[in-house]
Records
---
Amino acid sequence: MILGPTAVGKSELSARLAGRFGGEIINGDSMQVYRGFDIGTGKPTLKEQAGVPHHLLSFVDPRSQFCAMDFIRETLRTLDGVRSRKALPFIVGGTGLYLKALLDGLFPGPGRDPGLRKKLEGEAAATGLENLWLRLERVDPDYAQKIGPRDRIRIIRAMEVYELTGIPISRHFQSTAGFLQDFHCLRIGLQLERRELTRRIEERVDKMFEHGLLAEAESLRSRGIPEDAPAFRALGYKQALMVLRREITAEAAKALVKQETRQYAKRQMTWFRKMAEIHWFSPRDGEAIAALIEAGG
């Protein structure tokens, strides 16, 4: 497994390593699963995928909600195929919740409570999502910090679980078992000094706009993808839609995307540093990582 913050260089390094070891790459990013949302999600191009099989990219309808349990189910199915071909699987991504759920498990319940969920949705609408997040922070500070104050779906789910069980969702997670117990899973984390990561983030955002993020968002909208579709929550698309609605300029949008991406990268690292058994490297340490893989971890 290769994980790390956005723009750190996971895709490029994992493709090189997978090519070297006869591996196949399984996407571990929650937004790269959606069809048509390519530029803003940093999805590897077909050229970049050449020579190394890639899985779980562009296979979900952007109107559909793809969740952690969906990711686990699809990953386990894909792992069976990779193993049957005697290839080395590389799970690569930056969605900490998905990767942690795969490694450590998901608690089985409680199920959704429509009445309570409606109440929480109403509270978020009436007093603001951030106030609901502050309530979550009081009862489950670790999880609140991991997901951040803008993650509506996970904030509402966490409060729903707490109100139904009286137990923070983070404690439920602690009492579950992982899904990779049949595998020896080597966990490799990529990190960079903050100034360099910031530079890479800003370069990536500039390229997103240069390569047609606004045109892609307009095309998706013209094909009937509603603006409240789950895939439009990916970094950059909200601001792209604001430009298309003429609410802000493209330059203002670019600045906002850079700011939000920096904040997201910080939250990712907070999440990853609390995960166990990660071997941390710079993305330049390809030979050292290859030696670790050859040694079996």
---
Amino acid sequence: MCVGVSSDAGPWQEVSTLEDFVVFLRLLAEDVERMGRADGDPGAVEAWTNVTVSSFLWAWVSVLRPVLDGGDLPGKEMEGVPGWGGLAYQLHRARTATPGYNCVLADSGAEWHDVADVNGLRMYLAALATDFHREQRELAEMGGRGEWSGDGGRWAHSGSGAWLDAWAAWLDDAYLAVTPTRDRSEIEPVNWRSIAVQLAAARVYE
């Protein structure tokens, strides 16, 4: 059982199944949410440097660079698929990695269905980060003008904790419920495309 995510030897090492990954996502969500509270845990603050959705996504872009260069991230990266453990490790690293902002990637406009390999996922992550930042700026500008921003934006959640929790909830409801609504073959084996499918769902899931 995962016990926390602040350590460098975090519970990503214990993730090998979809069920484990859902638990891991919820722990990440709890950890980052603790930082937003008045009595925030100093340990959690130290463990998270990328607390906004956009900075987290850009850091994830950076984490994936070694894979593109033939590196050896844990999991099944060298076989061309991350596996649940490899995906958990990517998220673990993205908490503190230096964001890899890139103008070319930011303007890619990639969609989830464009993703076929690690570079495709990097482009999609960058597109998501750019879109999130743009929407938050638009909402702030509307608020500054005294306009009601309404509901139905492109993102269902404005905070990374809520976004991670929505990701876990979608996986739980779609694949782990007593009567799941989707077939696991959509996301297993975990590959770069199936990660994009999950991210597309988490962006709008409530």
---
Amino acid sequence: MRLFIAFWPDQHTRERMQAIQQAYTGGGRPVRPENFHLTVAFLGQVEKQRVPALQTMMQAIRIPRTELQLDRLAWFRRSQVFWLGCRWTPPPVLAAVQDLTQRLAQAGFSTDQRSWQAHVSLYRKMRNTPEIIDPEPVIWPLKPWVLVASETRPEGVEYRIIHRPPVD
């Protein structure tokens, strides 16, 4: 299974992100709004028998009740991704992400060694630098992260949440 751990937006947050996405046209492939998410850790191919350990690990780390302010648009030139993200990420969220990353590494999962940057991809394959205007901030009330399976299909990528830790 191709898996990743992510924060998943509620419908209101998703609609606000979609409005920002729709303000930018003329290049790239738009990410379908139902696929908007904020990746915490990309795990790649994982054997099915390792999923219960991942679920336990995810539940062991408490995500503080907080919110993210998505207030920055940017473009990753190399990967050609146009994204919406945070100028500032609350320290408790960063600490939870770092804790998870360390636990994943200790359990033998390969993890990205770059520092984590909270962002949501709006467009892929955007070859030219878009004209970037500061967006109206999107306030995203965070809920616990989820474990997601990614499947590539002829019509595009499909994400399926396979584990959602209980909310306190």
---
Amino acid sequence: MEAKAKLFGHPVHQMMVALPLGLLIGAWIADVAFFATGKAVLAGVAYWNTIGGIVTGLFAAVFGLIDWIAVPIGTRAKRVGMWHAGLNVLMLSLFTGSLLIRHFVPTHTPTFAAFLSATVGLAISTVSGWLGGELVNRLGIGISSKVDLDAPSSLSEGR
């Protein structure tokens, strides 16, 4: 099934998910580095990466919703997509909780609760990412109807 939200022939949702995941993983790594070194700048990196990850995650979700609405009701893809979306909402909620906890701490340093919330969110994103892969690689969501090992570039379509 082809994606409904596309840019230059490619699914926008699939392009967008790398940014929030990268930012949120980077935030978690910066927290670990902060705990290891005590350098406040790393807490700031984690704080701002978390904000960026949440904002871009919400942006990516809009395009995922557009594609999910087009999936036929009663299919496995619809159910897997619902779990994928639900876990992403939970993951973003956990990172938002982490952000709110650290927002009121001087220099936005992570507390144990903020770090635990982000860690659980990261673990959930792993499961959700696997489900996203299941949607694309196994169920063919977002795959062009013109799929072929020698298909022309999506930029050359219509010429």
